[in-house]
Specification:
12 strands; seven-stranded mixed β-sheet; 35% strand; five-stranded antiparallel β-sheet
Length: 228
């Protein structure tokens, strides 16, 4: 387990505290629809941090060609129908490019700045000419509107119990997922980013914001900086 990360509950737990069985139960939501309208039909997508394939499978159903990457073998065992690659995002170098690179699940908020820089460099390195990077950001009140909870229509409850500073601009976030038959928890480290900090981080990697894809600004489309 990585320092500052922890997970509890039934089944395998990945080094960043994610429970494989939990993520197999979570619904995909509207993210695949957000992605589908922002990229060309049939695009080749590199999905970084695919987990159990919740979005992978939905994107395949929409006709996309997906290469799914995750560091967890247990997560990748749940992925069906896509080319899968096991490896860390920040060090990935496949020697090929894609129409779309997808960095979801708030991964851009990694507590370790070097990990975040490596992830964004990976996005740029694998981006084809004219390609797009789709990034999921935290909401503006993610770390301040706590504690909070949401009851999903399917019958489970998600709670963000706390978000506490641990130094250097990083928070330790504790979440709970309560199902009728099981409970999972996850503690992880996240770095809040203002819009200016987010755009500066993209710029370091040779990327810039093209446009926001959602009204709340949590999904952003980025493109390569000309000449970078």
């Amino acid at each position: 387990m990585r320092e500052g990360y922890e997970g509890t509950g039934p089944g395998a737990i990945t080094p960043d505290g994610c429970a494989v069985e939990l993520y197999s139960r979570l619904p995909v939501g509207d993210e695949p629809d957000v992605i589908a309208v922002a990229v060309p039909a049939g695009a080749r997508i590199l999905e970084l941090g695919c987990g159990v394939g919740r979005m992978t499978h939905a994107l395949l159903e929409r006709g996309f060609d997906v290469t799914a990457v995750d560091e967890s073998a247990e997560m990748l065992e749940r992925v069906r129908g896509a080319r899968t690659i096991r490896g860390s995002i920040e060090r990935l170098d496949l020697g090929e490019t894609f129409d779309v690179v997808l960095l979801a699940s708030f991964l851009v908020h990694a507590g370790d700045e070097e990990v975040r820089r490596g992830m964004l460099r990976t996005c740029r390195r694998h981006l084809a000419e004219g390609g797009r990077v789709l990034i999921q950001r935290e909401g503006e009140d993610y770390h301040t509107n706590v504690p909070r909870e949401r009851v999903d229509p399917s019958g489970f409850t998600v709670r963000i119990v706390s978000s506490e500073p641990v130094g250097d601009g990083v928070d330790s976030v504790h979440a709970e997922y309560v199902f009728p038959d099981a409970v999972w928890t996850q503690t992880f480290r996240a770095r809040p980013l203002t819009r200016e900090q987010f755009e500066a981080a993209l710029g370091e990697a040779g990327l810039e914001v093209d446009r926001c894809l959602t009204d709340d600004g949590t999904w952003v489309r980025a493109v390569a900086v000309p000449g970078a």
